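If you are new to this repository, start here. Below is one unmodified record pulled from the training split, so you can see the exact layout before writing a loader.
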Amino acid sequence: MTSTRNRPVGRRGVEARAERGAGSVLTAAAAAFMIVTACFAVLVAAQLQAVHAARAAADLAAIDGARSLAAGHEGCSAAATTAQANGGELISCREVSDDVEFVIAVKVAVPISLPIPGLPTEAVGRAEAGRTAE
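And here is the target side for that same chain:
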């Protein structure tokens, strides 16, 4: 007669050998989930960083363009130089001015360092700056 004294027994009286290795499978699944989640978080962070960089480059380009317009110079060329110095590219620039008031509107694109397939490869920021009588 075989003794069951040394064999592990589950809650229902069935030997626990059938469950051996289940913890390893669950641990591997949890590790894989954590790796995929971390990779996704890095991709989202790259997207957000590019959006913030594009907005900042557009703001700085608009301010520099407005400063240049106020000094009587070409506003869009100054905006393009500033956008490029901040890692972006000036996509569009519009100057509206008269003797007293002026506004410059710019659109700047910044490349995304880790693009997600199927999504845009660059982030776009828009800004306006100038002097108005209001």
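Two things worth knowing about this chain: Residues 46 and 68 are 32 Å apart (CA to CA). The chain has one domain: 21-131.
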